Amino acid sequence: MASTNKNKNKKSELELEYESEEDEDNEEPSIGKDDKFSSETSQDQDMITSSQHYFGSIEDGFSISIIENMKEEYGLFVWPSSIILAEYVWQQKSRFSKANVVELGAGTSLPGLVAAKVGADVTLTDDANRLEVLDNMRRVCNINGVKCRVLGLTWGVWDAPVFSLCPNIILGADVLYDTRAFNDLFATVTFLLQKSPDSVFITTYHNRSGHHLIEFLMEKWGLKCTKLLDGFSFMPPHKASNLSGNIQLAEIVLEVK
Ligand SMILES: C[S@@+](CC[C@H](N)C(=O)[O-])C[C@H]1O[C@@H](n2cnc3c(N)ncnc32)[C@H](O)[C@@H]1O
């Protein structure tokens, strides 16, 4: 599992600038009554928090609010790989502005939300059995004022809605962490890549022991890597300083034989 040393109290100058703007205009979406987790106990609610993520400058950028649950291990937490992938989407916004995007294992969905903010048609997906994660995705879409489809999509499972997807960009942040799920993930990625020529899977992951398995499975599924970046190479310093780990970004496509 990915680890993080995020320092949520440390705010950059940019963040503080944004906050003062927001205070003046009172425009920032907040978690409304309807967005509260009504079935949670008060102890559970203590673990629920909201984080702010900033893209670009005040003039040409935006911020995104994410509801997180510190009690959860996986899909209700913004993992560092997600922050890095979201920044990549922002920096490549012209590529995303008319794209059809599917995010796999989206969890709190930061990269997909950035893609939607810059104009992409976005479907956010996560494990079909994790209804609390899918509910949270709908909430974060609402509080950020974006319209995305939310779909239960378990890797390697061929339920009817999967067949309706035809993305030209597939996103996946920190989806390569459990080696037992790698083959199913690549099966789904390959299926989606085959639906649309020139489509690409863009993923960020912690570079650790599963690397050889990733290479082996890419060959098995007829995939090739066209770009491999150190995830910190394009991060603004004020964002990078809150993150740690050896995170890579890979762009993966079908190998044409
Ligand atoms: C480490 S979390 C990453 C979440 C989010 N992408 C991020 O980076 O903040 C892994 C995500 O993959 C999802 N996931 C795990 N196994 C899955 C499977 N077999 N099918 C679909 N989603 C799965 C989890 O529910 C979780 O949201």
TrEMBL record:
GO MF annotations in UniProt: methyltransferase activity
Organism superkingdom: Eukaryota
Record key words, sorted: Methyltransferase, S-adenosyl-L-methionine, Transferase
Pfam family of the protein (one): Methyltransf_16
One GO cellular component term: nucleus
Organismal lineage: Eukaryota, Viridiplantae, Streptophyta, Embryophyta, Tracheophyta
Region (Disordered): 1-44
GO BP: methylation
Name of the protein in its database record: Methyltransferase-like protein 23 isoform X1
Family classification: Belongs to the methyltransferase superfamily. METTL23 family.
Chain's gene name: LOC105170509
Compositionally biased intervals (Acidic residues): 15-28
Gene3D superfamilies: Vaccinia Virus protein VP39
